Amino acid sequence: MPHSRSAEHDPSQAAQVQDHWLACAARLEAEVPAQLFKTWIKPLVCLGYEPEEQLLRLGAPNQFKLNWVRTQFGSRIAELAAGLLGPQTRVAFELAPGQPSRSAAPTPRAPQPTAAETRFAGPEAAGAAPGQGADAAAAQAPEQPPAPAQPVVDRSRLRAELTFENFVTGKSNQMARATALQVVDRPGSYNPLFLYGGVGLGKTHLIHAVGNAFVERNPRAKVRYIHAQEYFDEMVRAIQRKTSEDLKHYYQSLDLLLIDDIQFLSGKPRTQEEFFYTFDALYAARKQIIITCDTYPKEISGIEERLISRFDSGLIVAIEPPELEMRVAILLKKAEQQSAQLPEDVAFFIAKHLRSNVRELEGALLRVIAYAGFRNKPVTLDLAKEALEDLLALNRRQISVEVIQKTVADFFKIKVAEMYGKRRHAHIVLPRQIAMYLAKELTQKSLPEIGEGFGGRDHTTVLHAMRKITEQRQHDPELNHQIHVLEQTLRG
């Protein structure tokens, strides 16, 4: 390029640089979950290129996004820019106040119509709580009057607002979402599909999304969503009314069975037996079964071994608690669905302090919005701190370094004393580093204070432990799962 101050003075060069940036953004779009891309990368604009300095200038709409993108994505953006503009290319992030919003990528395709335009409910649901067992990963949309139900789906009980389009995806659930989409494309490809994870992580949202997409593809498909406790209640009523054979025939004629929270069949041998025969009939007919649970199949107590073996025969996928970026994206999405203005620093504050699940995040968001409404004030960081003061104080009180040490020691079957002892055997060092990591993540203690609690260790030792565990859990699924289990246990 000629040695002018900026390529944006030359229209052809400016267009070329813009094309390069769009190519970088397209690569990022393929690497980053859709909601995270939309939240963080898409708002960036290309401000120009300085040939003499080999500097690509990117603008962010506000300081919060600028800091976050530079920290989380800066190195990857610089790497992609160097590949397109030359190996010495550097990237500068700047505020772009008043800039017209030029997308970082072409406008995404408009979402396809969702599956069910109404919520279908069977006759037996009349006394049941709407959406019983449903995770809070979906917006609580007001219930619409049901349209005339088609005979083949009048008992599906799918919630029309729970779709793939409004399911926020991140590292913690992208595998589950990908397999769910594959089940829609090729029913029976993973049979059963067994999704497990803690409460409020989106399991129910995801299986409703499968059901809605399934019916959209084939409006005459026989689909049924049922919570395991409701399945048990149905069986009891059928026995009382002597209609067990009719109910059995109905379930065995389904094209897609979505059964939520299978752990609720624990200790119910008669219902487990009926479910076993239904499972085998659907499996033999190559009909799709999707099951959710709060734990791994082999860890469910009170369930017959033959059922556990059936669950193990399919694909088992974990849904983990959302990472920080995904929690921020979820909050912004929920606020958008409620037509509420949520500043990004407030979303970050809530996401930083509430980590366990989506339901907790949504509850905190609703509290902040309601608090602002009652006081007729806009949502600000100070107002959010005031609204959530008791909740945050409760979280801080419940978790201490000592509790973390004992919980981690019990989990890895070592002595608590070894947490602050001097031994450096591998089977002790890893749990000790995990405990330090959790102490920093789950308490308000400083690095020196945490080090003091681990036998007077220097703060640099704690910092090393944090960096090591942060890096390892990104590449070691088993370690990542263990830490999530510990986090859930500590937040108990």
From TrEMBL:
UniProt keyword annotation of DNA damage present: no
Region spans: Disordered: 121-153
Region (Domain I, interacts with DnaA modulators): 1-105
Gene Ontology BP, a term: regulation of DNA replication
Region ranges (Domain IV, binds dsDNA): 373-492
InterPro entries (UniProt xref): AAA+_ATPase, Chromosome_initiator_DnaA, Chromosome_initiator_DnaA-like, Chromosome_initiator_DnaA_CS, DnaA_C, DnaA_dom, DnaA_N_dom, DnaA_N_sf
Subcellular location: Cytoplasm
Domain of life: Bacteria
Quaternary structure note: Oligomerizes as a right-handed, spiral filament on DNA at oriC.
Domain commentary: Domain I is involved in oligomerization and binding regulators, domain II is flexibile and of varying length in different bacteria, domain III forms the AAA+ region, while domain IV binds dsDNA.
NCBIfam families reported in the protein's UniProt record: DnaA (TIGR00362)
Descriptive protein name: Chromosomal replication initiator protein DnaA
Species, as recorded: Quisquiliibacterium transsilvanicum
